[in-house]
Design a protein that fits this description.
Layout lengths: L5 E9 L3 E8 L6 E8 L2 H12 L3 E8 L6 H8 L3 E5 L15 H14 L10 H33 L12 H9 L5 H34 L3 H7 L7 H11 L8 H7 L4 E3 L8 E4 L5 H11 L10 H7 L4 H23 L4 H20 L7
Parallel strand pairs: 1-4, 4-5
Antiparallel strand pairs: 1-2, 2-3, 6-7
Helix pairs in contact: 4-6, 4-8, 7-8, 8-10, 9-13, 10-13, 12-13
Length: 371
């Protein structure tokens, strides 16, 4: 678009069936007005764009991330328009305002976008988003399996069936379940339904694992996934999940940015000479944060290269292996020191997870960029 065009900032409050649109003219004193509400269809959006473009405007669009996804973003950017998707948690809000509706949200987005006070989120391409959907489906299956097992365990506990083995949900536990017989036929039916629910969730997880492994081999981030597995505690599924959630590691200029993105940095409330730091912020991507914390538990043991880890190291560059070994030496030692100082185990593991993220960033940055 030419430089003589008048910039206009278009705020959109997007819902399943409708979009409320507001427009802010350039300049701090520029008019901010409501355009109206349209249907959430490509035809209706294109009609609005044609009307605004005919007025000689250079359009800049913004809407909040939400359940409607990134279809609108891809449509607008595909037509050559500038568009950002704002992070809802980072949209400034006045504490005294107690009225919220679609009109006010659209006007606020347009005004804040013009002032440059909105933080855009990273929008993955369609292939990356597809992989993220697949890995999140697997996570949903994991949660469903955990809840199904809890329900079965509670049912058995109520009926005084206690498993005395060392570990549940292994072959010996399954054999024990098969031999159980309830006192009443109705209870036997309920018991079998609980068992079937557990088996169904377990099979669903296995199917999704198989599909994730197949898709990962053909994904453009396959080299990054292989390199991340050089780290202790980072299995193939862990690496796929991390890349699916984070995308391009190169968009973070330093590891501190990635730590903050995952919500692993300490919160702070300081005033004057008083500096108060609390627990981690837990902002940003909760899925990737959980994965990092789970991986960090493996560093509670002494540093060593196991046969299983050696197999994952095959074909990797020497500098990547050096980073992975450096991570082991530092994180295993740091875990013991923090525990020796009396820190709670969970606090120590989160601290290890924060530093593990930095090593992931260092390894991913050494992989050649992909288109």
């Amino acid at each position: 678009m030419g430089n003589n065009l008048q910039p206009k900032f278009v705020g959109m409050d997007v819902h399943q069936k409708s979009i409320s649109i507001a427009i802010a003219d350039e300049g701090p004193d520029g008019e901010v007005r409501l355009y109206g509400t349209i249907k959430n269809t490509v035809e209706a959006i294109d009609k609005v764009i044609r009307k605004l473009v005919s007025t000689g405007a250079e359009l800049h669009f913004v809407y909040e991330a939400g359940p409607c996804g990134f279809g609108l973003y891809r449509h607008l950017t595909g037509d050559g328009f500038h568009c950002i998707v704002a992070a809802p948690s980072m949209v400034p809000k006045k504490s005294g305002v107690r009225i919220k509706n679609d009109t006010r949200d659209a006007l606020s987005l347009a005004r804040l976008f013009r002032a440059g006070e909105l933080s855009p989120i990273y929008v993955p391409d369609t292939e990356d988003e597809a992989m993220r959907d697949l890995t999140r489906a697997r996570n949903d299956a994991r949660i469903a399996a955990r809840k199904a097992k809890q329900r079965l365990h509670s049912f058995l506990l109520r009926n005084e069936f206690i498993y005395n083995g060392k570990k549940k949900w292994v072959k010996s536990h399954s054999n024990w379940l098969v031999k159980l017989k309830m006192k009443h036929p109705a209870q036997q039916v309920a018991f079998q339904e609980y068992v079937d629910a557990v088996n169904e969730c377990t099979e669903r997880m296995a199917r999704l694992d198989e599909q994730i492994l197949k898709a990962a081999d053909e994904w453009r981030w396959a080299p990054t996934i292989k390199a991340l597995q050089a780290l202790r505690g980072v299995s193939l599924l862990t690496a796929v999940n991390m890349v699916a959630e984070i995308g391009d590691f190169n968009r973070f200029q330093n590891p501190k940015e990635l730590m903050a993105y995952l919500g692993l940095v300490p919160s702070e409330h300081s005033s004057g000479d008083r500096i108060r730091r609390g627990g981690i912020t837990k902002t940003g991507n909760s899925h990737a944060r959980r994965i990092c914390v789970e991986s960090a538990w493996s560093y509670r043991y002494q540093a060593r290269i196991t046969q299983f880890l050696l197999k994952r190291h095959e074909g990797l560059a020497k500098d990547i292996l050096q980073i992975a070994w450096k991570a082991q030496l530092r994180l295993c030692t740091r875990y013991r020191r923090l525990r020796g100082r009396g820190k709670a185990t969970q606090v120590v593991v989160v601290a290890i997870a924060r530093e593990l993220v930095a090593f992931m960033w260092a390894i991913a940055r050494r992989i050649p960029a992909v288109a």
